[in-house]
Amino acid sequence: MTTPLNLGFARIGAKRELKKAVEAYWASKISAEQLLSTAREIRKLHWSWQSEAGIPEVPSGDFSLYDHVLDTAWMVDAIPSRFRELNLSGDLDLYFAMARGIAGQTATQALEMTKWFDTNYHYLVPEFTGAEDFRLRRNPQLDAYREAKAFGFAARPVILGPVSFLLLGKSRQAHASTAALLDRLLPAYEELLRTLADEGAASVQIDEPVLATDLADEERGLLTKAFTRISKAAPLKILLATYFAPLRDNLEHALQLPVHAVHLDLVRGLEQFDGALRLAPKNLTLSLGLVDGRNIWKADLTQAVELAEKAIDRLSGDRIMVGPSCSLLHVPIDLSNETALAPEIKDWLSFGRQKLAEIVTITRALNEGRDAVRAELEANRESLAKRRRSESVHNAGVGRRLRAIRNSDFVRTKAFDERKPLQQAALGLSLLPTTTIGSFPQTEELRRQRARRRRNGISAEEYDGYIRQEITHVIREQEKLGLDVLVHGEAERNDMVEYFGELLNGFTFTQNGWVQSYGSRCVKPPVIYGDVTRRGPMTVRWWQFAQNLTTLPMKGMLTGPVTVLQWSFVRDDQPRRDTCFQLALAIRDEILDLESAGCRVIQLDEPALREGLPLHKADGSDYLHWAVDAFRLATAGVRDSTQIHTHMCYAEFNDIVDSIAAMDADVISLESARSQMELLDAFAGDRYRNDLGPGVYDIHSPRVPSSDEMLELLKKALAFIPAVRLWVNPDCGLKTRTWQEVTPALQHLVTAARTLRQILSDGGGPLS
Question: Is 260 considered catalytic here?
Answer without folding.
Answer: no
